[in-house]
Protein 1
Amino acid sequence: MRRSTILHSFYSAFRPLSTRTLPANCLRKSFSPITQSLRAPNAAPFSSSSRLLARKGKGGGQKKDNRITQIRYHLTHQKTPRPLRFSRLRALRHWTIHRAWQLFRAKQRTAEQLELERQYNSMREACEALRLMDERGMSGQEGGREVGRLYRIAMEKKGIWDNVPIEYARIQMDYPSREGWNHEWTR
Amino acid sequence: MNTGQRSARQIALKAGWPAKGPVCFSCQHQISRRTYAIAAAAAVETQTQANLSHILPVTSTSSQQAYQVRAGVVLSRPPLLTRDLHPFEKAFYLYQRRLNERLALPFTRYFYFKKGTPTDVEWKRKVKARLTPARDIGVYNAYGDEGWNDEVLVGAKEAETEWQVESLLKDAEAPITGIPGQESENGAGAPNGVEFDGEQTPGVSSEKGKVEAVERLMPRVTTADRKGDMKSLDRLLQRSLYLLVKNKEGRWTFPDDRLMGKENLHQAAERVLVQAGGLNMNTWVVGNAPIGYYSFDFPTRRPGLQKNAEELGEKVFFMKARIMAGQANLTENKLGLSDFKWLAKEEIQSAVTPRYWNAVRNMLAER
């Protein structure tokens, strides 16, 4: 397989470090306590079976899973991190596009904010008119007996989340359904 | 009228100050601490009297006068589709995707496709044509010599949403016959796949190039849009639609009716919905508070409901409601309505009177 031959050159680079790959004159090998403790059973295996039966491959020890090798290969690809090189005019154009996008988004956000404000003000004016209205619909002063009865009821928050239809949670799609609107719905 | 004010008033009463007046509690409190408290009290007294004299004419003469209090329903169908993108947005998104292509790692084909499998062959064929793993950015190779040339010209087809969707769908189409080496026994199964959605796909009739049809999407512009059917709820799917009705006077308004007895706005709104549009609408009245208000003075006073009462005008409080399914049916309506329409915001402006539009425009959603 060609892939294996390509990867083979990388293989030694990504093989996990083991004591066997360390050179003989490596200081870590001779002084590391871990290595020391590991070496003892290596030199004289106490019991035996598993190590002796271990397959001795070409690279020594168990071969890594090919997929893992490939993932590691591609994660440390030579072409990473990829440079994004712009010429001077191209960089200026990019900056212009970026600024234009920021302005565009700012305009959109302002428009949304203003719309919410308009709706809120409309609601507030309606509630204010309701608050100062008596039972005959005349706008009187606050504090009368029947003034603001509808307002007090409208401000009631009890049970407003009861029976919220599940269809209210429907999200917007990019394309309509095949059936279209259900005009024939009957109670 | 909240409890805070009420309790403040009680404290003021205990302190010996006039209960009603335009001076707020904190001011009264400060005034009472002053040494010239008597003079201040006098000032408050006169102000109170002035205030009372301002109210009194209204209360004395209003035994005869009244306003019609009405509850209106702004029944809306929410937008079903996402909004149309601005051309600048489309161009910018494509620009960003191509930049991403310049920044991304090379596609690891061996990781995703096993060598020699039909999917691998298929992948190679596709990538050869479009030079990039991304399916919807057009022909562009970020790794080649032309990698710098990532921008498209103004008005390029690649920026259009329809083109992108079409290219995605085309990519999903798998050839039925598979790779040339494995085709032989698939001949019988091929026609079934094509017949499934036969009339919507551009049929590729050559034996080898036969592709399995992918279901195409419904268009965003519906037949109701093309015909200009104002009564259909399938029109203008990316906008909110509002129910407008033609009332007894022949004016287009939101459905409304006078409040009956002691009912509140929410109950009245639910009643108006049923009396105007019939039972066969799945609706929900949102909340108890009105979202808008329209006040109109009649040119001549009209006799009221009670004896010796006359009505100066009408006050309509609009409640917000949503329709989930169904359609309005005016055949059995009890409000004297003759026609209905489902209109978007700017269409309402041309349908209603300017005065009504001014009262109503702010509560309607832009989209």
Note: Chain A is about 50% helix and 0% strand.
Protein 2
Amino acid sequence: MKKRKMFVFLTMLMYLFVLVGCSDGNDAKTVSTNNKKKTELVYASAKDINDMNPHLYGGSMPAQGMVYESLVENTEDGIKPLLAESWEISKDGKVYTFHLREDVKFHDGEPFNAEAVKKNIEAVQNNAEKHSWIKLSTKIESVNIVDAYTVELVLSEAYYPTLVELSMTRPYVFLSPKDFKNGGTKDGVNGFNGTGPYILTKHKTDEYATFKANENYWGGSPEIKKITSKVLPAGETTFLALQKGEVNFVFTDDRGADSLDVEAMNQLVDSGDYQLVRSEPMNTKMIVANSSKSDNPVSETAVREAIWHSIDRETISKDILNGTETVANTLFSPNVNYADVDLKKRGYDLEEAKEILEESGWAAKDGSDVRTKDGKKLAMKLYYDSNSSSQKTQAEFIQASVKEIGIQLEIIGEESTSIANRRSTGDYDLLFNQTWGLAYDPQSTISAFTSEASYLHTTSGIANSDELYKKIDEVMVSPDEKTRKSLYADILTIVHDEAVFIPISNGSVTVVAPKNLKGISFKQTQFELPFELMNFE
Amino acid sequence: MRLFENLIKDRLGTISLIVIVVTIVVGIFAPIFAPHDPEEVNMSLRYASSSWDYLLGNDHLGRCILSRIIYGIRPSVLWVLVALFISVLIGAVLGFLAGYFRGKVDATVMRICDTMLSFPGYVMALAVVGILGVGLENILIAFTLIKWAWFARIIRTSVMQFAEKEYVKFAKASGISDVKIIYKHMVPVTFSDIAVISSSSIGSMILQVSGFSFLGLGIQAPNAEWGMMLNEAREVMFTRPELMLAPGLAIIMVVSAFNFFSDALQVAIDPKLITSKNKLQEELTISKIKLQKRWQNNL
């Protein structure tokens, strides 16, 4: 017995040493970050920055946003010049002529000129099937060099969102032609030299990536000299890292998942070292239903409507999200362009949900919790991002509500990449998703209804999908504002009536940053942040 | 009866036994003991602290933590017991065959055991989950598949000790059938060994099953399970640390109860262990048991 006690004692002693050893190491780190805090940001990200090739979709968008730039910028007040100083649009809307800035150089010293623009756009066009979600890629006929700093974009037909799509984080951004592999970018690239305010200096897969300020940036060298993207699991690890000073910045990631829960964020703010900045509502968080999965009850409009009715959005917004997000009743909030359409509101009403199910033949056999029809159970699967704590809670909450109306919902948490993969292969019943943000809504999100990589599986199972697709094609090329308005109204009414996008809340981008960081602002997209405008007091 | 009397003498063993029996009874009759429906969501009580209605407070969906702990006994303890029983059963059958008949049977069974034991337990469990998908039943299947080999091996050793005894040889010589010999002469003497090894491995099995549920590979929401409750509490670990207490303590209590009980059982079965006269014998047995335990923990 004595020996046993000794053993226990020794084990405890060992634990103690290990623990002490741990905290020592971290203390040292904290000190070092404190010393050079003034010009450095370290942000936590649940995912690696991945492949930074701007003409493909594997990379992290906030990181790509720092390194690459587009011709024009989408701001609150509309399209503004960025790499193009000015532009003209021909009367028939088919030819766009851009006058480029003459003082721009790529990170490797190559000049940014008409030739670089032509090469980049052609590199994107050579990989057209990857870019089917962005309709501009199907409209570009040729890119012509007019003179060294003037470039002409010729379209096959007038396409009104051209400038908006050129302003996006990808794919129409510019990489030094020296980095091209085999004259293109689709087989990978040799380097990541863009024109943006930050230069990628070091990347260790699944550990960290560092970016340093571009001293020769045409817009002036940014004040934050170094940015590190550190891969940390979301949740308490990130929280501890923030408390210890190992990282000092977190924000909503490009798939809409907050790495901290609301209370943890508030606790950080209360500690006095951090501030919390929230953008205006930018997107709609929603559940996407796979209408094309015909062997599953989710392909029935009535079932989707019943789910819509059984979600208590008020409680989700108030209790689960602590009032940080507002209730959403439609796919796009009315302040989005063209989205101010009068649609029937489906509120939280379990009785009505039951009635709808009853009418469509889903009957609750006596004693059983789950409704059946023709021997088939009313059972579905809902996928959520396992890195987002609020999605999991919402999923559980919804699971409990739909149980009351007789739907058996299985909830499954997965990595965001796996969820994106499910969305594009159609291997899901229901999954959490979000619209793409002010710059993309409604036109890009709506054109994504027809793209296999996005929402094709969601929309293709509805009754009048052909009509829907025809209208989407029409609206993108219609030059007349009034026709566009009515077409958009039709499109939004169709998807609303079919209830394939079940809205939950209007999400925003959240930033937790050091208290003395100034100049935190947001872009029109939820996918990137203007780090170059930030500075320490 | 002697066994029982011996057990009663050991106070810690008695307490452990009471804890185990109470846990099992409460688990089986969970609907009677639980004050609320464990899956009843009530958002207005989100993270409410304990009250007379909800003795242990409420979780992130306002569900009653006490009820969830009570219902959690089923997957966390009862189903683990079932899995343990099945793997002991498989292990016992094969162990008896190998230990009693020796020869080719022994060689075949033992080589299969070697193969099974050469994989790390956790990796095997993950592989099974990877093939069959997540879920409590798959975890339990995985455990049954892994553990039987270990039981088979221990039981075979124990059977072999007795298979060479004079009275067994005598029974064989007098023409009694093998089945009868095993049933009449082997099972009773080896039963105590089986009881001790299975009770000592239940603790680690409970921990492992809870561990898998903690990782999200075990039972799926909304069912209550202690490991999963810990994982849910982990998300608010720094804002509401008290949520970790209930499931954490439940696991600690049940696992320690099983471990203390297994120690007490060992002593009760072999009273030599409590007498101080046979010091040498005690040391020897204890170190043997320790060795077994360590091996098992490494598994």
Note: The first helix of chain A runs from residue 2 to 35.
